[in-house]
What we know:
Elements: H1 2-25, H2 31-38, H3 42-48, H4 52-72, H5 81-95, H6 111-131, H7 138-154, H8 166-179
Helix pairs in contact: 1-2, 4-5, 4-6, 5-6, 5-8, 6-7, 7-8
Amino acid sequence: MGKLRADAERSMRAIMVAAEDVLSASPVATMEQIAEAAGVARATIHRRFASREALIEAMEVTAWREIWEAVQAARPDTAPPLVALHQATANILQVKPAWRFTLARQIPLSAEAQAVQARVMGQCEEVFGKLLEPGADIVWARQVYLALLGEAAHGTPPAIESGQNPDALATKVLDTLMHGVQRRA
């Protein structure tokens, strides 16, 4: 039974990876095009996902769970705030590029993905609350941080794909966030 479950999970993952690639290139791609890219029959996709929307919802839940795990791996509750933010940034930069299409929505389709996204944003704001001066606009800091993170992961060209190490890129993102773009003396 475990082997069947593992095979089913690999199949679902392969379908989601193919869907991410196909939908990134063409957001109106059909389930047939996704099945072809995944190397499976259309019926296989329909057995796993009732509809195109169900597939996208599953992708969103998976992507946001991976982001949550990346954030939690940085130990935001126990590590010093700047250390946690740096590690979370480096971790996210290793996850986010694989989900360009899926993470493009401000609000995910499914309630489950929305809940995970809200936990991620809450954790981010909690770290900023520890890091920034009292009275700082934490929501604005989070929005600027997310914009920098998005640019690093998905800009033209994506900085993460230019061969920069995620740790070095995380330093660049946080230096820009905390000090702006001026060169320090």
